[in-house]
Amino acid sequence: EKLQRSGEVPPQKLQALQRVLQSEFCNAVREVYEHVYETVDISSSPEVRANATAKATVAAFAASEGHSHPRVVELPKTEEGLGFNIMGGKEQNSPIYISRIIPGGIADRHGGLKRGDQLLSVNGVSVEGEHHEKAVELLKAAQGKVKLVVRYTPKVLEEMESRFEKMRSARRRQQT
């Protein structure tokens, strides 16, 4: 109301701001912020506590959206393989992803990888922006232990799988 009366902000911008502030997303952020603020264990000034809470809230939402920090997963390389499948690559205009964890396989037993992890590097060699085959070659050539750097981004995998399915459907329609 104060902003409305002052005339400093155009009415259409105020309406847009009001819609955002009343949105489900904004309410979810507020609820998480309030919960974190009540549980954060910082015996400092309210300003420091509020700042720490704001950062924790942003981190929580970033992680929930799948934009988590990279992590290192080390798997033993055995005759049975690594126990996961990958999809994507430069030729498909997409990052390389862990598309499947084989039940009972090495990756499944280890528990460090998740379906939806983006593969960033294999034994120190980046596979970002690389062809699918390069990642496969690096994984096959690895001996002893395989050190993977991955980042959990399931939403992007879902979008990629949806795009591939649309392409497959279009090809099937062309063939009939």
- Provide the helix percentage: 40-55%
Lateral strand order in the biggest sheet: 1-6-4-5
Shape designation: flat
Estimate what percentage of residues fall within beta strands. 15-25%
Number of strands: 6
Return the CATH class of the largest domain: Mainly Beta
Keywords: Cell junction, Cell membrane, Exocytosis, Membrane, Postsynaptic cell membrane, Protein transport, Synapse, Tight junction, Transport
Main location: membrane
GO cellular component, one term: postsynaptic density membrane
Domain PDZ: 72-154
Describe the model:
The protein has 176 residues and is an alpha+beta fold. It folds into 2 domains: 2-64, no CATH class; 71-164, Roll (Pdz3 Domain). It has 7 helices and 6 strands. The chain has helices spanning 2-6, 11-21, 24-39, 46-64, 106-110, 132-141, 154-175, and strands spanning 71-76, 84-89, 94-101, 117-122, 125-126, 145-152. Strands 1-6-4-5 form a 4-stranded antiparallel sheet. Helix 3 crosses helix 4 (46-64). The longest helix is centred in the C-terminal third of the chain and has 22 residues, at 154-175.
